[in-house]
Amino acid sequence: MSLWGRLLMTGLIFYRKCMDALKSMDVDVIISCGDAINREELGELPDNIQVFPYVDQLDILAKADVFITHCGMNSVSESLYMAAPMVLYPQTGEQYAVARRVTEIGAGIMLKNDSTESLRAAVQEILDNKVYGNAAKECSVDFRACPGTAGAAEFTKKKIYLPDAPQGAGLMEMLFHLTRVCHYLTIGI
How high is the pLDDT of residue 182? Predict the structure, then answer.
């Protein structure tokens, strides 16, 4: 399980709540807290919890059963790419939009509040109910099937440089393709 670390306002308090919620569970927890929090401020760590300023997030997500995240677009995209279901803790309007879309596709649970009980229940629900992991895997397959930026650039180049096409021909097809290439990158925004 991975707990994303650079929360905007209530980081230290939230990390302590997470530690409280998860210390008695049969899970290994990694907290990445960035530079904003001194590791010592968290006090004594339970045996199943490790704290680092930074981690290789893609490597951790590839192994994670649950990802507790603030719902930044990059973190959510990486989580879906690596097929890790999420507990969603958005902090800003954009992050709420991203979190809402993740719940719509079934790959995560929005926290009702940040109480220890709510955190524990959300993590346990994802661990117990494989529907969240399956939805994240489905997104991962979709992500990996897209041609990415190189495919979008090649498609755009072909559509824009058609010498005998009337002006605007293929624009809708091009936009549809670009939307398909990037559809998860623009979710809910």
Answer: 45
Q: Is 26 helix (H, G, I), strand (E, B) or coil?
A: coil
Of the candidates 41, 37, 50, 29, the residue with the CA atom closest to the CA atom of residue 11 = 37
- Give the DSSP H/E element, type plus range, for residue 49: strand 49-52
Q: What is the pTM of this model?
A: 0.77
Backbone φ, ψ for residue 31 (5° rounding)? -110, 125
Alpha helices in the chain (DSSP H): 11-22, 57-63, 73-81, 93-105, 116-128, 131-145, 148-160, 171-182
CB 181 within 8 A of CB 147: yes
pLDDT along the chain (189 residues), means of 10: 46 90 95 84 93 92 95 94 96 93 96 94 97 96 84 70 51 52 39
Q: Which among 108, 44, 53 is positioned nearest to 76, based on CA atoms?
A: 108
Identify the residue whose tokens are 């293929």: 170
What are the CB-based long-range contacts (under 8 Å, 24+) for 138-141?
138/105, 139/80, 139/81, 139/83, 139/105, 139/107, 139/184, 140/80, 140/81, 140/82, 140/83
In this prediction, residue 10 carries a pLDDT of 57
Report the candidate in 31, 24, 23 with the shortest Cα–Cα distance to residue 7.
Answer: 31
